[in-house]
Amino acid sequence: MDIEQTALPGIGLKHEFTTHTGRRLAVVSHRGGRRDLVIYDRGDPDRACEAIQLNDEEADALVELLGAPRIVQRLNELHREVEGLVSVQLPVTASSPYAGRPMGDARVRTRTGASVVAVVRAGQVHTSPTPDFALAAGDVVVVVGDPENTAAVADILSDG
Amino acid sequence: MHTAELFIELGGIVLVLGVLGALALRAGISPIPLYLVAGLAFGQGGILPLATSEEFVAVGAELGVVLLLLTLGLEYNADELVASLRGNAGGGLVDLVLNAAPGAAVALLLGWGPVAAVAMAGVTYATSSGITAKVLSDLGWIGNRETPVVLSLLVFEDLTMALYLPVLTAILAGVSLAAGATTVAIALGTAGVVLVVALRFGGVIASFVASPNSEVLLLKVVGLALLVAGVAQQLQVSAAVGAFLVGIALSGELAHEARALLIPLRDLFAAVFFVFFGLQTDPTAIWPMAGLAALLAVVSMVTKLATGVFAARRAGIGRAGQARAGIALIPRGEFNIVIAGLAVSAGAHPQLGPLAAGYVLILAAFGPLAARLLQPLITAVGRRAA
């Protein structure tokens, strides 16, 4: 899939692509932070038939709706392909001993053999977090491993 | 006593402009033609000639030009200018040749001489980037695929202005060919230095100007722009170009903030500038030129349309998009009046001011209207063709 980037002098940047069903989509990022989600006309592919203005909050919400389930879906596909491999999403609660501490402190891989592949925070997916990535209450940690060691990670995150 | 009269007159003018602006907003047109009409009414031979405030209005108008160009420069950064020059020089040159020709031809045919021809070429050449930007945003055309083509033509025009204005200033001052060449060399040099400084040392200027306090930021930016504008004027490069280059040198978040702070100030003084141009023009002198202004307007609508179609076709845009690109380029406004204003105050042919005023009145009013009215038609035709 090709995403085409065009500069709009005096306005900002535009990213556009064509979907598999042949519709053109674009996002115009204005300098001031405003985003326009643009959908092109079928008959006149140069014309924006819809331009939906999104503020920061709305853009985040859209990313969350489109983005976070996609990551989970991809992981599910992954462990369907490899038998015995599971991915689980583990919440970091306020009572977790690791809330507010770097992830490396939990030594997840050393102690269990399972891997943390991503942390989902406020709808944003941080893939391959490094050991110094600080966990926070409300984060969701995505772990890949076998059924036993992922359960062990759940225990570590809740009880230390 | 004098202060009282001055305030009453100024207050009256600005209030009238506010009411006219509200009318323009309701009608969905640019307020610029209405401001010009107001200026005509307040000027010599108008219905309400001014008594005391003309001197202040004259200074305010100069400030208006500096602020117009400064905010225009702030919209662009040096990278965009360079990229646009590389990518769209062909379209930009076609734009220049096609659209400067009608003005120059009219001036020569009327026997106004080569200096007036250069001025009139500028009057018909430049699209109003302010009005066009507003048309694009009002009609939801910003996301359209022909819009980058339109915007890069506007950038090219603005850059051309940075070279054209010093040349115009020099020949209006009646300097010799050698002195004129020196001025152009200085202008080119200054523009080049500013671009290099902005590209290489943008951070240094930014850290000098930047301030978390909006008051400090406003004072620094306006001070810097006026200082550079003054020096540029001294060097015969034209104050407007100096301010434009300051705007370009500032970029990023800083430019965005500064622009937001300057816009109210610019709106006030730019309105004063349009009034001042109207003041200098005798309304009774426009009528004899009206037919010619209309003819010139029609011709230059066709040449701008052709420019848009040419540039958009080169970028692989479909027919409907080509037409939209052409229509978006039709409006003329602030630059054209700035150019005509320079020529008028340098004592150009007495009919140049009225012709330019009539011409801009027509295209500033009709350009956005044409885009609005033709939009459904273009869409329908585009659909059928698809």
Automatic annotation (TrEMBL), chain A:
It comes from the Bacteria. Transmembrane segments: none annotated. Residues 75-159 form the RCK C-terminal domain. GO terms for molecular function: monoatomic cation transmembrane transporter activity. Coiled coil: none annotated. One of its GO terms (biological process) is potassium ion transport. It holds the Pfam family KhtT_N. Signal peptide: none annotated. PANTHER family: K(+)_H(+) ANTIPORTER SUBUNIT KHTT. This is Potassium transporter TrkA.
From TrEMBL, chain B:
Keywords: Membrane, Transmembrane, Transmembrane helix, Transport. The lineage of its organism: Bacteria, Bacillati, Actinomycetota, Actinomycetes, Streptosporangiales. InterPro entries: Cation/H_exchanger_TM, Na+/solute_symporter_sf. It is a multi-pass membrane protein. Belongs to the monovalent cation:proton antiporter 2 (CPA2) transporter (TC 2.A.37) family. The chain crosses the membrane at residues 6-25, 56-76, 96-120, 161-179, 186-209, 221-248, 260-279, 285-312, 333-350, 356-374. It holds the Pfam family Na_H_Exchanger. Residues 15-369 form the Cation/H+ exchanger transmembrane domain. It is found in: Membrane. This is Potassium transporter. One of its GO terms (cellular component) is membrane. GO terms for biological process: proton transmembrane transport. Gene3D superfamilies: 1.20.1530.20. GO terms for molecular function: antiporter activity.
